[in-house]
Amino acid sequence: KLLVMGADDDIIGKLESQNSNETIREKFNIPKTDFLIVTGGKIDEFKWQTLNLMDAINQLSFDTFQLIIFGSVDKSLKKEFNKLKNGNIYYAGWLDAIESYQYFDSADLVIFPGRHSIYWEQVVGQQKPLICKKWEGIDHIDIGGNVEFLETDNIDEIKNILQKIKDKPEFFDKMKKSAKHKSSYRFRYSKIAENSLK
Question: Does 35 have pLDDT greater than 90?
Answer without folding.
Answer: yes
